[in-house]
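This week, look over our next protein:
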Amino acid sequence: MKYSDVWDLEVFFEGGSGSVQLRQHLDEVQEKIAQAKLEVERLEVPKSVDDAKEIARLLEVMTDVSLHLRQAGAVIGCYLAADTRDKKAVLLQGETGTLNAEFKTVMLNFQQLLAKIDQEAWEALVKSEVLNDFYFILNEWRDDVALKLSEKEESLITALSVDGYQGWGQLYDQLVADVRVDIEVDGVVKSLSVGQASNLSSHQDAAVRKESFEKLEEAWAAKEDFFATTLNHLAGFRLAVYEKRGWSSVLEEPLNDNRMSAETLDAMWGAISANKAPFVNYLHEKAKILGSEKMHWYDLDAPVTASTKTLSYQEGAAFILKHFEEFGPELASFSRKAFEDRWIEAEDRDYKRPGGFCTGMPLSEQSRIFMTYSGSMSNVATLAHELGHAFHSHALRPVHYLNRGYAMGVAETASTFAEMIVADAAVKSAETKEEKIALLEDKVQRSVAFFMNIHARFLFETRFYEERKNGIVSASRLNTLMEEAQREAYGDALDTVHPHFWASKLHFYITNVPFYNFPYTFGYLFSLSIYAKALEEGSDFEEKYIALLQDTAVMTVEDLAEKHLGEDITKQAFWEKGVALCVQDVEQFLKLTAEEG
């Protein structure tokens, strides 16, 4: 079967961003929110277990609103990703932003009302038959409310965030959509979007890689003041809210959102910082292979052999399905359905947003995957990564929607696990030594990304927020902070760095997830432990894996690791085992390249 590389969104609402069905859907969502608001306003503070059924009924009301709102927001986000010129979608995104703010206020009011319940009555309620399935999430709501301001103050923050916070994130998307660069590729000068130009980072021709990097760096520099203003106001809004709530650390919200302790985060970065030497050695060796004394940023993704394998979209899909089948039938059959039913937007064309993502359409129990596929093995790994996200949602289908709200760290666990299956298989199936070196290097590149690139983002962001507390941070200072973070995180293995990385990376501007960085590294290392168990147990492990995924939204990451892996992830020793597995890839790469030399 020939798979389409353009997704199908018509199955949700016919007619794209001008859809009459979508308009009706949004109007219905508005009515549902208004009705939910009335229901909450009429509710009195529950006093005993006799009120459990009424709370359960209201939970279903909130679930219904959330499902419909999430469906609309996800589809509209897909319209904009597929065509950044879609002006109607921009307006619809603004409308859903307002609806989200309204519903968030309703939910907060509901949660604050529940938080007023007497502790003894609360315990009886959450352990009752009709509410016991929501024990974790209800207690989490209660704890979250205790950390925040009054109902009136939090409602005001939410209302002001639409234009004073979310709007800045939307402005970033529009600024990036306007960025274009002219680059000569294969003797032809092409006008490229950011996504297309970024894909040239792995081009065989060093001159193309260098020109792409320099042209993009110039483009970011040309608008650096706009990007700096946007980033400063996003951070300023967050910091103002944190100060009002009495939160002293900027990590309080992201750690809470990820259901992770500071001890776990410190242990993870500690293990990585203590074991960077092999990866620095790898970067020095790669630089030497490419004819440089030290590594240039624009060569980080460069191929190290002349015969780097490329796969068409059809070949990439077949490769993924073949190796998913070896892990387990459920993952393979699900992924085949995603290809067959056109859940994936992978076409390499103009006016697409850069990057890749997976988004859920919960009303339809479907997902959509977005990326720009150009044939590299890295693209194949990215596609597998996003399919891993989609499979996570699929695994949670038997679970009530309120118990599907998994955090970003464990979200990246499922995606990275799927990516590993493909990356490992690629190395093992290499037909020549040259090809094996190239594929092994692709694996090591991912370790470098998670241990060094993500670490640089984390270092930059923590330091930027500290400086932002004292006032606006200039674009030139942001460049300096970024360069310092990169040199530290990469162990001084870099010659050329990417000072405007802070402007180029969408993750710094995502408004609904603060510190969109460390969960990637968490997911990478956490999934290594899961992958090790999968290799031990073979296809029999898939059932246990699905059970783990179904628990990801109803416990802390520490409890999840203890239950399913028997590990204490607050200790550095756990993380060092994962890093050691990655070091084995580096050692194998260095051995093979030494033999080649």
Remarks:
- The radius of gyration is 24 Å.
